[in-house]
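Consider the following input, taken from an annotated entry for Universal stress protein (Streptomyces justiciae).
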Amino acid sequence: MTGPVVVGLDGSPASVTAAWWAAREAVDRRLPLLLLHSWTTQPLNVPVPQEALSKQRYGGQVLRRTEAELLHRHPGLTLTTELVSDPAAEALLAAGETASLLVLGSRGHGSVASFLLGSISLHVLGLAHCPAVVVRAGDPAVPEGWRPSADDRGDIVVGVQQNGPTTAPLLEFALTTAQLHRARVLAVRALPVSSLMTHPHALTEPGDEAWQAAEHGRLGAELAPWREKFPDVELVQRIDRGAPAQVLLAASQHSRLTVVGRRRHPSRLTWKLGPVAHAALHHMPCPVAVVPHD
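Applying the prediction step yields:
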């Protein structure tokens, strides 16, 4: 992909953290970065009168300040800004038609490992044409300003519940990103506890080694073509029993990025995120990428 990395910037701490994450990603991917601000869709706590001119001035200041900070840190970055009057969700979805990646910020809520997503973010995540990443405000994995990133974040975790075209875009995105960052990919699959009742080894111990070996062999065969396609990326597999969202969350406690999928929708009037994507977006302790698939 050659389109830009696009980040929605409204001046909030969450959007600034997202911009720092997006800038680093753009540099690593050798792509331009676009900072997009909708002056008609600003945070409720913006300390300016509600006149249109004041909103436009505020938006311009936010873009210029963030642009200067990012270019100071990444002098080789190709960066443009855009101040638009379209609603934020509409503007971001339009930019996503040609973007390689959309990046959104999310306020922390409750525990440290929790997101608070607004209707704009959920709308964009449910309809974006390209992969979209949500970054939590103050995420220690993001090298914001002159603060280095946390050094305990390593793996890129991807959920692979089933083989075939549904999983392919997720693995492609995860492995490509890992190759850029020289990271390891952890492919995670959850098996429901009820599967024990239908498995040939169900009458033996639940942790039956033969049963586990068979499941790992099946997943290994599915991942074999990807290991050949990305020979320089370490691809590790993990299978646990439990609900998919819980298994993925447990595997992502120290990851630098978690990748989940969602189905494409034929109409912008009908869209939704699945339960695993919802759980990941609200509870993962790291940035979350939502990758559309057929």
